[in-house]
Amino acid sequence: MSSIVAIKSIELEKTQWIDVFILWIVGVFAAMQFAKFSVSYDLLLTAYDVGASSIGALLSIVGFIGLLFGVVAGVLSGYLGYQKVLIGSLVIGGGLSFIQSVLPSYSVLLITRIIEGISHLGIVVAAPTLMLRSAAKQHYSLVMGLWGTFLVWLLLLLGG
After folding, report:
1. HEC profile of the chain
2. Which end of the chain has fewer CB atoms < 10 Å from its terminal CB, N or C?
3. What's the whole-number mean pLDDT along residues 40-44?
4. What confidence tens digit (pLDDT) does each residue in 57-80 have?
């Protein structure tokens, strides 16, 4: 077994459903973090004197970060600890959202979106892992199925 990713295997007899649900809600909020610029696209076009492709870059950069660094995030999360990564990512993402809410300059907004992509990646790597750690083995499929619905719930909440 790798010394970098030594994951303790503790089988629970009973699923900690409250923990699973809270972590799932974290996923819904992470999806909101991912999608907030698509909802406010027209307002951002009005607020910033840049072209549509520049606002599109703000929209897509979070997903692009996930594509580039997904495997790295998985390895680092295992090494640093999933709880630490999740909590750090939530704090960083919340702080960045606050900065973005005051409509800083475009360059500052772009930098915060790049960092937000990293925090989003930390959430979507750590939360499902912690959900599995909170579940009894017989509920693994159900818990991962629940995790897979977080984006659907975001679309329902946004009316899409």
Report:
1. CCCCCCCCCCCECCCCHHHHHHHHHHHHHHHHHHHHHHHCHHHHHHHCCCCHHHHHHHHHHHHHHHHHHHHHHHHHHHHHCHHHHHHHHHHHHHHHHHHHHCCCCHHHHHHHHHHHHHHHHHHHHHHHHHHHHCCEHHHHHHHHHHHCCHHHHHHHHHCC
2. N
3. 92
4. 999 999 999 999 999 999 999 999
Question: Distance between CA 147 and CA 129 in Å, rounded?
Answer: 10
Residue 32 is predicted with a pLDDT of 83
Domain residue ranges in the chain: 52-158
Per-residue pLDDT, 31: 84
What amino acid is encoded at 103 in this protein?
L
